Amino acid sequence: MIFFLSVFILPSAGNSLQQDISRDAYVDASIGDARVLIPVYADDSVSGGICGLIYNGLTKVDKDLNIAGDLAERWDVSDDGLVITFYLRKGVKWHDGEPFTSKDVKFTFETIKDPATGSPYISGFSDIRSIRAIDPYTVQFEYSAPYAPALLKLGMGIIPEHIFADIKDIRRSEYARAPVGTGPYMFSEWESEKFIILKANPEYFMRVPGIKRYVCKILPDQSVQYLELVSGEIDSMTLTPYQYKYRSDIKEFRERINKYRYLAPSYTYLGYNMKDPVLSDLRVRRALSRAVNKKEIIDAALLGLGEPCTGHFWKDSVYYNHEVDLYGYDPGEAVRLLAQAGWKDTDGDGVLDKDGLVLSLKIVTNQGNKVREDVATIVQRQWADIGVKAEIQVVAWASFIDQIIDKKKFQVILLAWMLPLDPDCYSVWHSDSIREGGLNAVSYSNPAVDLLIEKGRREFDIEKRKEVYHEIHRLIAEDAPYTFLYFSYRTPGINKRFRGIEESPVGLYHNFIDWHVPRDEVRYDF
Amino acid sequence: MKRYILKRLLLIIPMLVGISFILFAVMHLAPGDPTSIRYGLNPEISQGARDNFNKMYGLDKPVLIQYFEWMERFILLDFGNSFVDDRKVISKIMSRLPATLLLQVCSLVVIFCVALPIGITSAVKKDTVFDKAMTVFVFIGYAMPTFWLAMILIFFFGFKLGWLPISGMMPWYAQYLPAAERITDLLRHLVLPVFATAFTGLAALSRYSRSSMIDSMRSQYIITARAKGLSERRVIMVHALRNALLPVITIVGLTLPALISGSFIFETIFAWPGMGRLGYEAIMSYDYPVVMGVAVISTFLTLLGILLSDIAYAFADPRIRYEGRK
After folding, report:
1. What is the CATH number of the domain that holds A461?
2. For the segment B174-227, what is each residue's pLDDT rounded down to a tens digit?
3. Which residues pair with A67 in a beta bridge?
4. Domain shared by A443 and A303, yes or no
């Protein structure tokens, strides 16, 4: 389901297998049910995924991670970066037949900006000073300051003005559970906790989708999902690393299912509380990073299904600085750095000490994630190898947020970030975000990085932006507030009868409307 | 008797209020809150958005005020809206209740039909091979973890043999099937879950009815009946059995709350869209209105069930009267 999040469907150029009629059904499995099918409110991955099929935004991301037009054919950014003008596609219709025009765009973003709406995305649009519908197919956004992430943020699904304008409480309207959009799939049914059915939109402005129905079946247990995938009851699931590696060899699996993989835009890290007396020393943090063997962690905890990470950006995007790799596994160097910082094993007990204090750290992570607990255990051992004693504490999610993140009572945390495609990292790395409830939980503060973050937000030119974020990547790595560990692969298993699937960093669904099933392999022909 | 029933019914009200207050307090005492659970570490959601969320749901008010606001609505039987998807709590509960009711009613019927005969016959044939075999049988069922049994059943009957569906209540394409097929399909989906629930639930009722029957068979009136020359069949099936069933009636009343409760683990494995997962997921996501709704309804049914079984017992056993003699 996460595949659909910030991805809207773009035809892959040169695909000549156009289908005249939509056929069959694609049954995807999900652990949880969707919550609300209005993009303005959708804040969980299941709802976001389904919204990605029902709605379109002004822009979308293509399989090469470029920003492409969706409902907007093209756009202009003024020289001062304050005005963005979108020229909209003509002839697009809502699922109820009404025409899509600029008033829908204006309405959508004014609704998000209104605090009474209660949209969680409100802050991404707070810099918008005005929205003007110049004509039915041109809409202009005026910002109070240049805001480069705008091009992606304005890719938010557009909601119909003619339906919602007169509805006071959108969240509780019937359309939250029976949505109307412009997208390739129209809403058909939603039986709570059982399934959601969408059907192909025969008047979709790009092409008619090749698959007639999209079904999201709710199966809360991954083992049961696996059984249903192999028996053919469902067509797709996200395989766990174990299932991908060891359970895909059985005959029925090999005959019926194809395995895919792509790098997920999420990385796991060890975060060091910069205000902690032991960890405030840069040498200690660098030593701890040197003592971690990322390859061993990836092989053991992820069964090899991951790649090392060194920074806070999508690895396949232009913003990731591949030249930064400062902390290769070197336990000898780690011990040397710690010795420089005054930590030596003076009493021969295998644990480093200084001024009578033992170098003992507590690693806290959240409950419910077995892989993370495995990673913590491996790190504990790797650190023990250089004389650092580590204790692992697993805390329930609710307490974790409250005690650890808000009150910042921790030394080392083991967590992961889900990254948006836009490289703006203000909420995590800027010193403004250190306050209680902010996401800069480790209290990282570097004025040079602050300035660069502010600069990156204002720069629309991709080449210049790239330089800014490469520098941020390097500076943060040098300060070592985290040990960046790994990106994991997402490993879907999909029934072989679906043709046209292409792996990409944005997932598999970038060209979902071009998937098709050969006539003689159709399973659901109603 | 009528006054007694009325008194008991009225007593339910202060008990509900007290329990609801405790529930509300405990919920709010747990560390964490709905907003941080939901938006926890999402870098796209600002502090302003979180504060707004708190304000929208009244979470920024003092806990006591929140309780009174909840109580005000509750008196009018308005359970409020879920924090998670803004649906009315009553709608959410009503959409999940039928699945649980169906499963529980079917299981209870099976349990009664199987456990009672096992218990009674074990009592009559006390200490024989049959009795010992049945004891082992029901205790295996009782000791077995339901989720493990569920997985085994699904794996063999659903996956390997393909005789029965792997999970769920109805397939997504049910609406495209003819009506008759839909019913048989539902029955096929019920087989494994009902079997798993019933098998693990047999022990209690069968042991209880067994010991009740043994007690009954040792009583004076049985010796009298035999002395009178009645056939053994009549002695057991008419006289002993009737008296043995009296305590069983108590159990029936107590099964009332069980009708609407489901096991979360069980429902997760069978993908059964029932109350168990609703309650658990509501607790995990700090969805206060739904937690309160499910808990209060459950409490009410428990109290009602106890009352019903007390009344039924009074009707069945002429020795019991709740008010003083006239």
Report:
1. 3.10.105.10
2. 888 888 888 999 999 999 999 999 998 888 889 988 999 998 888 888 888 888
3. A61
4. yes
Segment A75-92 shows an average pLDDT of 95
Domain membership of residue A392 (yes or no) is yes
Q: Do A43 and B81 touch (CB under 8 A)?
A: no
CA distance A481 to A445: 10
Q: Answer yes or no: do B86 and A171 touch at CB < 8 A.
A: yes
Per-residue pLDDT, A12 = 45
Establish if A403 touches chain B: CB-CB under 8 angstroms: yes
- What part of A 214-243 touches B (C-beta under 8 Å)? 215, 217-221, 223-224, 227-228, 230-231, 233
> Can you give the CATH number for the domain in which A92 is found?
3.90.76.10
The model's confidence at residue A15, banded by pLDDT at 50, 70 and 90, is very low
- Total domains present in chain A: 2
CA-to-CA separations, A416 to A316, A369, B72, in angstroms, rounded: 18, 11, 42
Domain boundary at A164, A192, A217, which? A164
Whether residues A148 and A269 share a domain: the answer is no
pLDDT for B55-107, tens place per residue? Answer: 888 888 998 999 999 999 999 989 999 999 889 999 999 999 999 999 999 99
Task: Give every CB contact of residue A435 below 8 A, 6+ residues apart in sequence.
Answer: B47
A43 touches chain B (CB under 8 A): yes
- Answer yes or no: is A149 within a domain: yes
Residues A111 and A34: beta-carbon distance below 8 Å = no
pLDDT value of position B324: 53
Q: Tell which of A125, A144, A164 closes a domain.
A: A164
Nearest by CB to residue B172, choosing from A195, A224, A417, is: A195
> A462: domain range?
265-489
Tell me the whole-structure pTM to 2 decimals.
0.89
E-state strands within A19-154: 23-30, 59-61, 67-69, 72-77, 83-88, 128-135, 138-143
Contacts of B31 in chain A (CB under 8 A): 398-399, 402-403
